[in-house]
Amino acid sequence: MSLATLTRRGSHGPTSPEQTDSGVPAKPSKAATPRQDAPPGGLAERLSLASSACAVLALVCGWMLLQLLVLGGLSHMRDQVLLYSKFRSELAQATAPTGELDYNGNPVQPGAPVALLTIPAIGLQQVVVDGTASGDLTAGPGHLRDTPLPGQAGWSWVFGRGSIDGAPFHKIADLAKGDTASVRTGQGLVDYTVVDVRRTGDPVPALPTGSGGGLLTLVTADSHGFLSALRASSPVYVDLTTDKALADGPVAGAVPSSELVMARDTSGLPILTLLLALLTGLVLAISAARHRFRAALVWLVSTPVVIALAWAVTDQVTRLLPNLM
Fold it and tell me: How far is the C-alpha of 238 from the C-alpha of 215, rounded, in Å?
């Protein structure tokens, strides 16, 4: 190499590793390129599964709140219209129950209409069904089956929800002594007068004396404060009396614990477990589908299925709530 060549190279300083002799930038070699570590195996799948699970959970929780606080009331109104039509037909045909046996001598089925309760002071008119379990009270107030029917002699009990499923009894605590109510059954019409509104521990009124004496107690959950509709609270009792009660009919024997005050019905737990398993399977299916199809298309197809399952889950969860909520 000649001295002139060395002199020319030295005048421009040392050659940059990123520049050729001609001055054109050179492409970086593979060895010079910083290595980017690949994401851990399955990370994308786990993120997709987590996002799908969160989305389904949000849909289910949102639907449950909507159904408990809004749609449950609409369902209750529909049930009451159907019950009123059925009970009116039974009254016209003189086949309405007069006890825990129907017109044919068979036990009255839980959920069947047995009375029409009217309280003008709070604008209440409700068809009373037989049975007081959580599932029975979604349609309307329920008659405690081991007591006489409303309107009959003795001590009758009627439970009603105070917060969800239309909350037909949410105003009964506002009743005052002297307010009136009426009950129509297959035996006729009976008028009542409010004598007391009490809470747990207050003195229980005595049964009216005389052959026509009858006591009717309405029971619901007394709730106050923020989100009271979603919290269990103490029961409130409204006692009404009459001196023109009708003859009592047959009553049921001991009722299950799920029909007592503030009781929960756990009979639907197996169905709830199955529904939750279906929701879990749906989450896995949605996560897998999102890797093959557009996310918008996947959610368009799966959302109605999620809502249907959420509706069924809410129906079963309602049974696990206290029956007077």
Answer: 10
